[in-house]
Fold this protein.
Amino acid sequence: MTYIVFWGVLNFQRGFQPQDTDIILASFPKSGTTWLKALTVALLERLKNRSSDDHHLLLSDNPHGIVPFFEIDMYNESSSPDLAKFSSFPRLFSTHMPLTAMHEILKESPCKIVYVCRDVKDTLISLWFFGCAIHKIELDKNLLESMFKSFCSGTVYYGPFWEHHLSYWKGSLENHNHVLFMRYEEMKSKPRDQIKRLADFLDCPFTKEEEESGSVDQILDLCSLRNLSSLEVNKAHKTNNVDHKNYFRKGEVGDWKNYLTPEMENKIDMIIQEKLQGSGLKF
Ligand code: A3P
């Protein structure tokens, strides 16, 4: 898997040609990617003037089926994949690559990049549950211990979390029209504010009429963990050999407190403090 993704990154770097209207949804794995994809799809779908009887895209496919990953789904085999299905604009892509891996390709492009960032300890626990679920094994504390060590040393899939976060954080400071830095915790605590922020950034703000008619809440309800996880397509289907149901668990802030020891907590907090020092990025 890792080997294939590595080729996917190289192929992307060789072959991707950005268009000005492209939207790229980025994240470290298990940071809220599925939610961000669903919200963005719902924001864009509402612009298509569909009747309310039309079947919504999110009801017939999982967000990962609708928004492919560059390095996993598109460029895994070739540097010139068939992009015919992206003939309508804006094109919507996703990635777990750090911004540094896309910098050369995107540096001249005004495309929009949205990054969702999540508390590292919750990300770790989410990844542990996900790993056990997709490999169909019991929750294993030894596995958590070894994942914790990899997180701390930065030897994980997609590299050190601090470099990942900082790449997008700096990108957003350099050009806030190009990179939007979102936080999972803020999306949970202030969903209305955050979805409006996302809509503004994507140049598709809610109109006054939409706000008054409850459109913001409709999108939030449609994309809620409760709703998405109850849909047939997310209960019974797979993408890339992953059962869709595994993308949805608790979605709680601070769930790490149920699993990490105080020593693990302290170690991660110290790493965060050291690595993010002076950047302005805080957890
Ligand atoms: P937990 O494992 O903490 O529950 P990703 O989408 O990047 O793989 O992240 C997965 C995490 O996002 C999981 O967290 C999952 O439950 C949560 N999640 C998935 N869909 C969500 C939604 N619609 N709203 C809020 N959280 C969601």
User: Anything to note?
Assistant: The pocket of adenosine-3'-5'-diphosphate is lined by residues 27, 29-35, 38, 122, 126, 129, 223-225, 228, 247-251, 255 (CB under 6 Å). The first helix runs from residue 2 to 15. The longest strand covers residues 112-117. The CA atoms of residues 190 and 231 lie 24 Å apart.
